[in-house]
Amino acid sequence: MQLGQRVYSGDDVQLLTASGLGILRGERVLFEGVSLTVAPGEAMVLRGPNGAGKTTLLRMLAGLTRPEAGRVNRDAALHWVGHRDGLKPNETPRTHLKLWAKAWGADADVDAILNDMGLSRPADVAARYLSAGQRRRTALARLMLEKRPVWLLDEPFTALDAEGRDRVLAMVAGHRQGGGAVVAAVHGDAGFAASREMVL
Amino acid sequence: MSPAPILSAFRQALGEAWAGGAGALLPLGFFAGAAVLVPLGIGTEPGMLRAVGPGILWVSLALSSLVTLERIFQADVEDGALDLWLQTSAPVSAIAAAKTFAHWLTAGLPLALMSPVLALMFQAEAGTDLLSGALIYGLGGLAFFFWGGVGAALSATVRRGGLLIALIALPLYVPTAIFGSMAMSDAAGGDSAPLLLVASTLFSLALAPFAMAAALRLAAD
To answer: Which chain A residue has its CA at the smallest distance from B220's CA?
Structure first.
């Protein structure tokens, strides 16, 4: 798979800039020469077959994986929601959100967020008894705890039902309206309004 | 830097330790079991038991500390919590230290509290020495858990990493085991041994968190 130099540019104000990103996985070049910029209000959808490196690219943008080439400039705080939900088996949606609100020093109305995410009913059920979709909703609810300009989402719709998907789309739309930006790896139709696509 | 993420990591680790049923009690059972087997193996001659008792307890303590360490970082890798902890405003080393300390509180402190009972089984004389012994086992255990935490962080992405943790951590246990045994024995030079034990424990507390942080960053990479 050859990606070549592909530079996306948006407005003058950038929340996130990556240039010349490349990484090896084993002996193989997973991708190289990936550059992108994300400006306020933008959504970028990462596409590509399984194993193309979408998750790796997102982790690089999040600062979790070190690129072997290129660099990432994070000019704004970001939220990372990976495909693993980050819940402990004994945590409930409520204790999970309260813990992270406290860890981040965020003054959030956890009850309202639980309600918004359709998690009022299972709010006090331990994660090991929750469905995959309910765990996913809890992970995505972290986005609402603290306002951060950049959201990096890895397969945000996995395990969500149609109603959950609509909630996430509404969250993304509201976030963009408020000057936020989203980079997401999505299979199928992302459903984001006016988004750019990048194929790995 | 605010201490909030560190406190949250500590609280989450405590909650996890008590949530897994009797998981936190496993090292305690192992500690008692290992120590009880020894008199059965070597006979019950009081003089001999009294001589080997402290040494046996140190070995049992070292091995018991390894029982539950495997999960403390591996679970974070598997459920994705590690990504979140790496992205807080607090240093990763402080997060790792908080988690390890919480683990010692739930799994290691009970070992120290139980040591006087086991020491009595080895014909130690009842008295205040038992309490100072518990303090010494507690201090030594703290070093064991922090060095073991380095092994746990290094093997966080390895399936069945338990044995690997032992191979990494046991050499690091050596100074603590030596000073700890000296502190428990009445031999000459025993006076300075407790101080040396404190020093080696402080050394582990100062160094291990940075090694854990580096290993955890690699685990997430």
So the answer is: A64
pLDDT of residue A11: 47
User: Contact, A21 vs A73, CB < 8 A?
Assistant: no
CA B66 → CA A10, B71, B101, distances in Å? 53, 10, 14
Q: List, in order, residues 6 or more apart from A41 with CB less than 8 Å away.
A: A176, A177, A179, A180, A181
- Nearest C-alpha in A relative to B72: A88
Query: Which tokens go with B189?
Result: 């030079």
Residue B131: burial class (beta carbons within 10 Å; 0-12, 13-18, 19+): exposed
Whole-number Å distance between alpha carbons of B100 and B73: 9
Provide the greatest CA pair distance for chain B.
58
Question: Quick one: A80-198 is in which CATH superfamily?
Answer: P-loop containing nucleotide triphosphate hydrolases (3.40.50.300)
pTM above 0.95, yes or no: no
Give dist(CA A182, CA B1) in Å, integer: 27
CA–CA distances in Å: residue B70 to residues A142, B63, B104, B142: 28, 13, 13, 16
- pLDDT band at residue B45 using 50, 70 and 90 as cut-offs: confident
pLDDT tens digit string along A85-118?
999 999 999 999 999 999 999 999 999 999 999 9
Length of chain A: 200
pLDDT beyond 80 at A8: no
Looking at chain A, the whole-number percentage of residues with pLDDT higher than 70 is 94
Domain residue spans in chain A? 80-198
Q: Which of B15, B19, B84 faces A86 most closely, judged by CB atoms?
A: B84
**Residue found under tokens 């990591």:** B9
Cβ within 8 Å, pair A90-B20: yes
Average pLDDT of the residues in B79-96: 95
Q: What is the pLDDT of residue B20?
A: 65
Q: How far is B81 from chain A (nearest CA, A)?
A: 4
Give the whole-angstrom CA distance, residue B51 versus residue A6.
74
